[in-house]
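seq:
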Amino acid sequence: MGNKILAKHVVKTALGTVFSRILGYIRDVLVANLFGTGMSADAFYAAFRIPNFFRRIFGEGSFSVAFIPVLSEYLHTKEKPEVQKFLNAVFTILLLLLAVISVLGMFFSPVLAKVVAGGFSNDFEKMRLTIELTRLMFSFVFFICLAAFLLAILNALYSFFLPAFAPSALSFSEIFYMLIISPLIVPGNQIRGLAISVIIGGALHFFIQYPELKKLGWNLKFRFDLKHSGVRKIVFLMIPSIIGLSVDQINALVDSRCASSLGEGQVSALYYSNRLMQMPLAIFGLAFVSVSLPVMSKAFAGKDMATLKKSLNYSVRLTVFTLLPAATGLMVIGLPIVQLLFEYGRFDSLGSIMTNNALFYYSLGLPAYSLSKIFANAFYSFQDTKMPVKIAIAAMILHIILCLVLMRPMGVGGLALATATSSYFNFILLVIYLKKRIGELEIRQILFSFSKSLLAAVFTGIAAWNMCKISENLFIAVSAAIVSGLATFITVSYILKSEELKILVHIFSRNKGN
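struct:
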């Protein structure tokens, strides 16, 4: 049953994410064209790290992994009025907490900006702008975390397309600003207008999803009940998961701090490379991450461990199958992709080289980023948030050490390599301890599938590398490389009789029929 649910919703999630990521790409191109990798872009992306950090803690991160399993349990065991009371209590407390955090964040913006971008300290104007943008964008935390709350509810109710599409509201707001409003603004103030558009986008993200919640028969009302048993349970689960799931953001803050000391444009290059890596990760990997948590949580609530294990195995094999060729492609034709997508206006060839330097090493870790989240979801589904925390802390320590060791000899590429290496370390430890917790995970089947996918990915890289040389026109060269790489991967997978290819064909054909 779990696999059927996964198959039904993964494509819808991926489709919603595709729309969102396309708009995100257009937004990034416009920002690169308008601001390049100069002072304004560096200050903006450094400042944006801070609200995104809190977003991961009180939004899609620790809150969601604590909230979804508890909500799944309530939906499985309680009547609707009791579930509604639970939702209202959580909404009210979250609303008040976010309001306080937003005010405090604005007040302490100078301290936060110096923590994230200490390397800007020698440039007074750059640091001043970073502090100002941090203060401007901090109210984004309020709206985006409430939007993430709605996303968690909708996912638990098996609504996946709209929550996957809703992040496009942020991109739409920024795109509208840069195309329509920014030409009317004095150049020195354009970056401040972009920060305001981020806040508007966060609010739109929330309001796009709320009608879907009402359509499903639920609503949110102000009801303060700090003693509600469900609220206490979420808080209990969140305490360790705040540490565990904020590790990614702490790592990102460490990356920004290190990059800010490497010179002009390094913070922006790190951001653009991460965004490119996130495209296949979001479309393929995070689709399984988003769907697997509510599916496994429901299986655990129903005491169906067989379904939980099958869902985990299914998600892992398909994630590897889809992300290995994507990682190979980004590694072998990363530079022409960066040049095609970003090298316009103020984004020059040096910016492309810096961005590709980080992209290559980020891509090495692409499968590990997603697999770590899927295996962590298995722990969260049976409401164990402690073990992933211990493992995440160990991975974070490794990441920090590697950043300090690699940043000088390798630049932003060293920071990306540190991220990839620590992600594989995190993933391997999760597998080891999950096997101790729930028994056999069918590792042999996963490794057999991995070997086939890896072989197909190698041929994909060879095909893409050679086809990218057929023309000096970047659009023709990159398009030919992507098409030939995809065709090669499908052909080799078919020859190797990869079960995952058959599964994906079945998923797409069934969703097309629906």
